[in-house]
Design goal:
Blueprint: H1 10-23, E1 31-41, E2 46-52, E3 63-72, E4 89-93, E5 98-103, E6 108-113, E7 115-120, H2 128-131, E8 137-139, E9 144-149, E10 154-159, E11 175-182, E12 185-191
Antiparallel strand pairs: 1-2, 1-11, 2-3, 4-5, 5-6, 7-10, 8-9, 9-10, 11-12
Length: 198
């Protein structure tokens, strides 16, 4: 059921699925969805996601489902993973020099072209260059952005022509997976980005 289930022994996968179903109580199966977090209201316990329409294929995610969905975190706090980080960068294609950013004001996804300046590969998320909160870093006036792309485990420096550049547009929101029976209310939620699966 979970995207990374291929990394678990079969008995652990079964336990995860069984636990999720028990959470729902008697009567019927629930569903699992996954997406990128574009907004997180910690006070209200509400996360807003751009869903991955292709999340059954872990190698080719496609964050393109609009409008974004708003989901309340599980009422049982023990069924909630690490709190998510929100951001509006939902896709980065270094080879094609393009990014997809969620435009909150226009409620749409926009494609932004860029010029690659530098790419540093094999940077794990726990690297201090990432964890110290220095990214994204913007050279205002020059429209040069240094950001971390979690999917590729890369630190990327790019130039974006024209217009004002916002840090929120270049911050990657965490991937969150949740199990539910009633839309809008998660029974279980896992922060895929911040959870190490063995």
């Amino acid at each position: 059921m979970w995207r990374n289930e291929r990394r678990f022994p079969a008995i652990q996968v079964g336990a995860l699925v069984g636990a999720a179903l028990l959470l729902s109580g008697c009567g019927g199966f629930g569903r699992v969805e996954q997406g990128r977090v574009v907004a997180w209201d910690a006070r209200e316990g509400v996360v807003t996601l751009i869903l991955d329409s292709n999340f059954r294929d872990p190698e080719r995610p496609k964050y393109d489902v609009l409008p974004p969905v708003t989901v309340r975190v599980p009422k049982d706090a023990s069924q909630m993973g690490p709190a998510p980080v929100s951001g509006r960068l939902v896709e980065l294609d270094v080879a094609a020099s393009r990014a997809v950013v969620y435009d909150a004001a226009g409620h749409r996804l926009k494609t932004v072209s860029f010029t690659l300046i530098e790419k540093v590969d094999n940077v794990p998320p726990e690297d201090t260059r990432v964890t110290r909160g220095r990214l994204p870093a913007i050279e205002h006036g020059k429209n040069i952005i240094r950001l971390y792309w979690d999917k590729g485990q890369q630190i990327v420096t790019i130039f974006v022509a024209g217009g004002a550049v916002s840090a929120d547009d270049w911050r990657t929101g965490d991937e969150v997976r949740y199990y539910f029976k009633h839309p809008g209310q998660a029974l279980r939620m896992m922060n895929v980005t911040r959870t190490k699966l063995l």
